[in-house]
Amino acid sequence: MSDASSEKAPAAASFWRDPEKRAWLFQVLVVAVVLALFGYIFQNTLHNLEKRGISTGFAFLNNEAGFGVLMSLIPYDETYTFGRTFLVGLLNTLLVSAIGIVFATLFGFIIGVARLSSNWIISRLAALYIEIFRNLPLLLQILFWYFAILPLLPHPRQSIELGEAVFLNKRGMYLPAPITESGFGWVLAALGVAIVASVFIARWARHRQDTTGQTFPVFWTSLGLIVFLPWLAFGITGFPLSWEYPELRGFNFRGGITVIPELFALALALSIYTAAYIAEIVRSGIQSVSHGQTEAAYALGLKPGQTLRLVIIPQAMRVIIPQLTSQYLNLTKNSSLAPAIGYPDLVALFAGTTLNQTGQAVEIIGITMGVYLTISLSISAFMNWYNKRMALVER
Amino acid sequence: MKIKHLLAGGSLLALSTLPVAHAGATLDAVKAKGFVQCGVSTGLPGFSATNDKGQWTGLDVDVCRAVAAAVFGDASKVKYTPLTAKERFTALQSGEIDMLSRNTTWTLTRDTNLGLNFAGVNYYDGQGFMVHKSLGVKSATELDGAAVCIQAGTTTELNLADYFRSKGMKYTPITYDTSDETVKGFEAGRCDVLTSDQSQLYALRIKLKDPNSAVVLPEIISKEPLGPVVRNGDDDWLKVVRWALFAMINAEEMGVTSKNVDEVRKTTKDPGKQRLLGLSGIKGQGLQIRDDWAYQIIKQVGNYAEAFERNVGQGSPLKIARGINALWKDGGIQYAPPIR
Ligand SMILES: N[C@@H](CCC(=O)N[C@@H](CS)C(=O)NCC(=O)O)C(=O)O
Fold first, then answer.
1. Looking at the structure, do residues A47 and A137 belong to the same domain, yes or no?
2. Could you tell me the pTM of the whole model?
């Protein structure tokens, strides 16, 4: 021990010469300076806010909001708190983003594949779509869909009807709302059983294919199970479901489920815009798989559908997924354009109205940025996980 | 929108880094830079809107111009920042603008929690409703179940909720960012009713393609004293803005107009008018501005009556009657402390 320490002594003297230690020192210094800077800004902000008589802190989240909201997925009225408006806005943001992601992916894949079609017209049309929607500012598109569609729809009293159950007018699309009665739990349970069974069938089929080479129609069997079992339960329990129909009372329809035009226009604009990018990503992904792969698959006797599903797509996905992730992130962040057409998302309700009514800009913008960061990182994490699963395992 | 976010971010940064203001900071800064940065609406005819020459005009704009006239002797030394209802307070708090003159209601929360100071009231208003004529509605009490277009970040949003709640009626709020969108939404039939301060209803009504397709209902559901606003903790500046407005009201009371002010200044023996026009009394000393500050306001902007009639009254398309905005001696409630 004493030997070792006496050897270390000269090393300590040349602390500055040791690049590793020096690097450490500088790292620590940088972190300390950055922290100090943030600390200074934070203190200064608090001090300034106080000097100007602007309230600080998060107590406002418990104050009564006092304003109404167009659409909420959870119970809400004017007597709820600002904390509640935050939740309402957050859920509305998540809703429109989720809808947007699903449809953008769907449209994007269809158009991306169409872009590669050997049919000249189809591929040209797809190219036209991509060029138009990728190159127009998104805000313009949102405003267009909203203010172009609204005047075309009829007034509530002249609604377009579908079998006295579905109504369409300027105030939105009104659908009957399902009301579950006792016994409906069995239907859900049957659905659960069907899903679990499908998972097991898929595993068993893969195992069988690995060992015997025989294939099993997993998709159709699972689909059959998932559709048939719940219906069976539904029938046995005596159809425990009724519908609440929307009806015209006074100015507007009441009851049922309402899809407001703001949600429709925003989701549509986001999907159409993002789909143009996704189409290009899908095209580049498919083109990145060399044609030799297709020829090799055919030579092995795979059918065209199987070739696409088992050979091309899995390899294309490696190129597609990382870029798809960034499109999903963009879509979610772009949904913050919602206030332009009055869709009550997080930015409109919380960073907008709540900020204005309470004046607590620092806290509210801070929370809002935190939320978008969290959403983005979650999507990113999920897609990274999915990417790992899809990535080719090098053997 | 992205730009707005950037702006918000920028404003936040400004909030954190601005040195703490000393009492006369804004007045000194305004004098040094040579103009007043005034926050106005994005376009509300009669109050603050650009005319066909691209100049800002309106009753609220005239307050900005009066302040510039008082400080610089030149009413044109104003730069305007158009702000939506949502953006306005952050813009003022962060120092992006020197004063806000944008049909803003004086409320307890704004005066206290938001760190603002209201300098006075240049228009006494109240919230009203405008409906499509085709609905055949005659009173706000018939509005149960209506879809209502409003602008985000206003007292309007809160009053609306209060009114329907107290009447036990239901409504669907459709909340837009700008008055343009609110009008468009109303015009496109997204809502049955548009609600805002009544003066603004008249202003927005003339923005409609067919102003006659809408009617303003008789009910007034709130008190909306609208006035210029400055930051908390800057008393010198507050007083300049406040007395610029008071000078206009006092001038009307004394019968001094932009037309006769030169004449009056030469000939008057009235001590009140002499003090107003900076011929005697403490002149500009108390406010730390030029001695003829009120004379410049009256000469270049006019007295309150002139500004009212030109922008929102009989000389304008809005044709709003003076009503409670008449002087106290004419049966209204406009009243300014004396200049002495
Ligand atoms: N006086 C109310 C309402 C002010 C307000 O913003 N009114 C709307 C009327 S729809 C407006 O003037 N908008 C003009 C704009 O956004 O530029 C308040 O202070 O909250």
1. no
2. 0.85
